[in-house]
TrEMBL record, chain A:
It comes from Gluconacetobacter sacchari. Residues 191-290 form the ABC3 transporter permease C-terminal domain. InterPro entries: ABC3_permease_C, FtsX. This is ABC transporter permease. It is found in: Cell membrane. It comes from the Bacteria. Pfam families: FtsX (PF02687). It is a multi-pass membrane protein. PANTHER family: CELL DIVISION PROTEIN FTSX (PTHR47755).
UniProtKB/TrEMBL annotation, chain B:
Belongs to the ABC transporter superfamily. This is Cell division ATP-binding protein FtsE. GO terms for cellular component: plasma membrane. The keyword Nucleotide-binding applies.
Length: 330, 226
């Protein structure tokens, strides 16, 4: 008889756990649930990658472009409204005391030439009189959000009295628009993650209920013999947590190649230099280094958290489902 | 210790027709001291199994109060009821063994629910299986056993954890006379050790051989207590 033999510690522990008649391996089989959880983990990983990427882009775009105004002064060398200074100098003088300006810079000839090179070639002298281009950098804390932003229209009005025809272009508008776009993308990605988590809850609850129905007889029996709700719920919950963990792990591993590919495509926008392809991809250290260099840290952290998160969702959902079901018993 | 006051019980089986199930117990009151033995008598359908179901905490009285092993049932929390159930052993009329577990694991259930160490479980299970004459069938599954063998497995499972209350529903109907007598000896010994015992039976020969205090039901009413 197997019971009389002295089994190993693990085997004995295993036997004691399984021998209460719940037969969870049959009640909650180890095929479908991990597979579905793995698929959802891939979806969650992609959505999380989207959220991370959108957050990075949003930060860059809002911060980078928001603080720059470009001012064009046509006929820069003509005398200004109040001589003797030229129009360009008059505008520069007027800008000097703009509140919140951190830097006023007139592009010199070389910079202008570089700017126009795509259209005019590498010329240093131009037949046309080029307008003066002045960049007005605003200090970061007086960005569009704080309301201390100099209104481009009123600035243009003020400059027009000094040098009529001066144009003011506010890059902040584009920056803010891109920032809002990135923010909405971020929100959508988080919503997708929440929906995936919601589906996981529904799926695990349904699987648990099917398992309860399949093992109704032994559950009712051990309940009648004094097994507590906590004991029965705990047995089921540990099983689904394990299955969900395995599924989550498989899913995040499966998502890795996709994410590496994605982040290489997105690298130029996020301004992270794409790392060179590894010499031998079979080398684990190289592969890990590649991952660390390619994927943003927040994404790596969320990836690592996927399997534990799936296990937690599985455990909590099953606990609630089983306890609610047991309340139908006396 | 058992105490019932004006206990009535009706099954909650209002079917699709809306017809209510019959009242199984009406205004039943009695008490059994700790270590007491009671026959539970009455014709088929009188309510014996229903009364044992209430005593096993498998249902709550529809009205009236029930007190068991010093605990009042109505206000008790679920966890307290579970603890109480672990101190009760039941031999069901239909045995209720788990068909896909070996006899050994069926009998070990009450000990494992108490989280007793496995080597202790092994010793206790083999001892009780030897006592009921099934020492060699530990690895068999219940469907491979005869009716009498299954009943003895059910008896072994009901007493292995030395419960404070044993409830037996027709525990001798599949046993031969010799086995029935041995079972009654066991119940007498357990009762002497302080276990409260209630045995429902139709076995008149057995009752004549072992006269004892009897509770008798008829149409759900208690018609005799003595
Ligand atoms: N699960 C149930 N649902 C509805 N009614 C039930 C149920 N079990 C028993 N009854 C009814 O309750 C009444 C008492 O039945 P019970 O099983 O307690 O009788 P008994 O004295 O044990 O009979 P027997 O000697 O045949 O076992 C009967 O009228 C029966 O039809
Ligand atoms: Mg009966």
């Amino acid at each position: 008889m197997a019971e009389r033999a002295a089994p190993g510690l693990l085997a004995r522990w295993h036997r004691a756990r399984r021998a209460d008649g719940l037969a969870l391996r049959r009640a909650l089989p180890d095929r479908l649930l991990p597979l579905l959880v793995a698929a959802m983990a891939v979806l969650a990983a992609l959505a999380l990658a989207g959220a991370t990427g959108a957050a990075i882009l949003s930060a860059r775009w809002s911060a980078g472009a928001a603080s720059l105004l470009t001012i064009q002064v046509p006929d820069p060398d003509a005398p200004a409204a109040s001589p003797p200074s030229t129009r360009a100098d008059a505008v520069l003088a007027a800008l000097a005391d703009t509140p919140g300006a951190s830097r006023v810079h007139r592009l010199d000839k070389a910079e202008l030439a570089a700017l126009l090179a795509p259209w005019l070639g590498q010329a240093t002298e131009f037949a046309l009189t080029l307008p003066a281009i002045i960049e007005l950098h605003m200090a970061a804390e007086t960005g569009a959000e704080t309301g201390a932003d100099p209104d481009a229209a009123s600035l243009a009005r003020r400059l027009a009295t000094v040098a009529p025809g001066t144009l003011v272009e506010r890059n902040a508008e584009w920056g803010a628009r891109l920032g809002r776009l990135a923010d909405s993308l971020h929100g959508c990605a988080l919503l997708a993650v929440a929906i995936v988590a919601g589906i996981a809850v529904v799926l695990i609850a349904a699987t648990t209920r099917a398992g309860l129905a399949a093992r109704r007889m032994p559950i009712e029996l051990i309940h009648a013999m004094g097994a507590s709700d906590g004991y029965i719920a705990g047995r089921f919950a540990r099983r689904t947590a394990l299955l969900a963990f395995v599924g989550g792990l498989a899913g995040s591993v499966a998502a890795l190649p996709l994410l590496v590919l994605l982040s290489r495509v997105a690298a130029p926008f996020a301004q992270a230099a794409p790392s060179p392809a590894p010499a031998s991809p079979a080398d684990w250290a190289t592969l890990l280094a590649l991952l660390r260099d390619t994927l943003p840290t927040p994404l790596i952290v969320t990836l690592l958290a996927l399997a534990p998160a799936a296990a937690t969702i599985g455990w909590l959902t099953t606990q609630a489902t089983v306890r609610a079901w047991l309340r139908t018993l006396p | 210790m058992i105490r019932l006051r004006d206990v009535s019980f009706r099954y909650e089986t209002a079917g699709a027709s809306g017809a209510q199930a019959p009242v199984a117990l009406r205004q039943v009151s009695f008490a059994v001291p700790q270590g007491g033995f009671r026959w539970l008598l009455g014709p088929s359908g009188a309510g014996k199994s229903s009364l044992l179901r209430l005593l096993a905490l498998g249902a709550r009285p529809t009205t009236g109060t029930l007190e068991l092993l010093g605990t009042s049932i109505a206000p008790a929390r679920r966890a307290a009821l579970a603890r109480l159930r672990r101190r009760i052993g039941v031999v069901h009329q239909d045995f209720r063994l788990l068909p896909d577990l070996p006899v050994f694991d069926n009998v070990a259930l009450p000990l494992r629910l108490q989280r007793r160490p496995e080597d202790e479980v092994r010793d206790e299970v083999h001892a009780i299986l030897d006592w009921v004459g099934l020492g060699s069938r530990a690895a068999a599954r219940p469907p491979q056993l005869s009716g009498g063998e299954q009943q003895r497995v059910a008896i072994a499972r009901a007493v292995i954890h030395r419960p404070a209350l044993v409830l037996a529903d027709e525990p001798t109907n599949a046993l031969d006379e010799h086995q029935a007598t041995r079972l009654m000896d066991l119940f007498r010994d357990l009762s002497g050790l302080g276990t409260t015992i209630v045995v429902a039976t139709h076995n008149d020969a057995l009752i004549r051989r072992r006269p004892a205090h009897a509770l008798e039901l008829a149409h759900g009413r208690l018609v005799r207590d003595g």
